[in-house]
Write a structure and sequence with these properties.
With 193 residues, the chain is an alpha+beta fold. The protein is built from three helices and twelve strands; from the N terminus they run ββαββββααββββββ.
């Protein structure tokens, strides 16, 4: 599905605030431009502690030093999940069931939201699904889970990310970074199911 770069060296610095992130450039970008924009969006994340992958429609980065972040690649989508009880394969099965049932994107989103509400009665979670075919991101979080945030760069690139800073949603990307050329102002929203 994609290429993954990972380094398993010991990290002696402080924990980064980001647990995982997904990046989706504008749909008109070719594969080289997608790669360039994904790398640019994640350049502030320490390579020693973050695994990265680039797919045809975008990419992700995830903290490699926490076992609560689950990652899976199935078919043509990538899943990043933070949960103590929900398993990533269960989330993937439900996502593919809904996606296969609904070709209309609006109906698919409504159905996915209902599925998340059902899952939220039994589990606490935050997740991002990167649909590489549709070049779309679907993310959701239950109340009292790690917060999700998203924003767009001036070039149209979307970055959605899950942070470990309590229940406060960050107001900018990159986390732990300065306001450089990679900065993205983040919408002050938390997607709660």
């Amino acid at each position: 599905l994609g290429t993954t770069n990972s380094t398993n060296t010991k990290n002696t610095s402080t924990k980064h605030q980001c647990l995982f992130a997904a990046c989706v450039p504008a749909k008109e970008c070719d594969s080289e431009e997608v790669k360039k924009r994904v790398e640019h969006a994640f350049e502030s994340l320490p390579t020693e502690t973050f695994e990265r992958a680039i797919y045809p429609g975008g990419g992700f980065a995830r903290a490699s030093n926490t076992d609560k972040v689950q990652h899976a690649e199935y078919h043509d989508a990538a899943f990043l999940l933070h949960s103590d009880s929900l398993k990533v394969d269960v989330l993937a099965d439900k996502f593919f069931h809904v996606r296969d049932k609904h070709s209309d994107l609006r109906q698919r989103a409504v159905s996915l939201k209902e599925t998340c509400k059902e899952l939220g009665t039994q589990h606490k979670f935050s997740f991002i699904v990167l649909d590489c075919v549709a070049r779309r991101v679907f993310c959701a979080a239950t109340e009292h889970s790690a917060p999700l945030s998203f924003g767009h760069g001036t070039d149209g690139t979307l970055v959605a990310f899950c942070s470990r800073i309590g229940n406060k949603s960050p107001s900018r990307w990159p986390l732990n970074g300065d306001q450089s050329s990679t900065s993205i102002r983040v919408k002050d929203r938390k997607s709660v199911v």
